[in-house]
Design goal:
The protein has 202 residues and is mainly α. It has one domain. It is 70% helix and 2% strand. The longest helix has 31 residues. The termini are far apart. Keywords: Membrane, Transmembrane, Transmembrane helix.
Length: 202
């Protein structure tokens, strides 16, 4: 199956709608990257984070977490395009799962796009990519942690940071960063509570 390549000026909702229309069978992550074209970093961060925000995709963090980490790391390193190792790039997404996900998230994405816009943006392109990349890389590690229902906040942080990069929106950058700090505090609190429980019964 051949998917059309996204225009760099297209909004994410338009790109996802096109993918939804053309998605008729299993598609590999490498094919998804190719279809998103040169603007793939921010959309891929959002696409890979979304299943962890909507809990109906079983095992989403295990499947999507490693690619999310790779994309964020390459954004930090300043790569011009996304690359995945063969073991990750060959992973495919079932079209029925994708359809269910799109039916759930497209209205939300369109709503977010109406709110996000260029404002309060003081970072250069390189500084913005490094800042968002570091934040998303840290959050992608938390997404992979086997903590029930603790993946949603890091995933939301990634989505907000990626939208801020795509729209040059300083408020979304700030919001994504704040949610990231809350995620860090929550994960450390969970581990501290677990350690305290273990020590109490030892």
């Amino acid at each position: 199956m051949t998917l059309s390549h996204a225009d760099p000026q297209d909004r994410l909702s338009s790109v996802l709608q096109d993918l939804r229309k053309g998605w008729r069978g299993p598609i590999s992550l490498n094919e998804l990257i190719a279809s998103l074209g040169v603007r793939s970093f921010a959309p891929l961060l959002i696409v890979f984070a979304l299943p962890n925000l909507f809990f109906f995709v079983p095992g989403a963090s295990v499947i999507i977490g490693p690619p999310l980490m790779f994309v964020a790391a390459q954004l930090v390193l300043g790569r011009p395009s996304v690359w995945l190792p063969m073991t990750l790039g060959k992973r495919s997404i079932d079209p029925q799962v994708f359809e269910r996900l799109m039916a759930r998230v497209l209205p939300w994405v369109e709503w977010v796009e109406r709110l996000a816009r260029p404002r309060y943006w003081v970072l250069s392109q390189k500084a913005a990519e490094r800042t968002v990349g570091v934040g998303c890389l840290i959050m992608s590690v938390f997404v992979l942690l086997p903590i029930p229902f603790a993946n949603a906040l890091p995933a939301l942080s990634v989505i907000m940071l990626a939208f801020s990069l795509g729209e040059r929106d300083g408020l979304w950058l700030l919001g994504g960063g704040l949610i990231g700090f809350v995620s860090i505090a929550l994960v450390f609190a969970i581990f501290a509570a677990g350690a305290f429980t273990v020590l109490s019964f030892s």
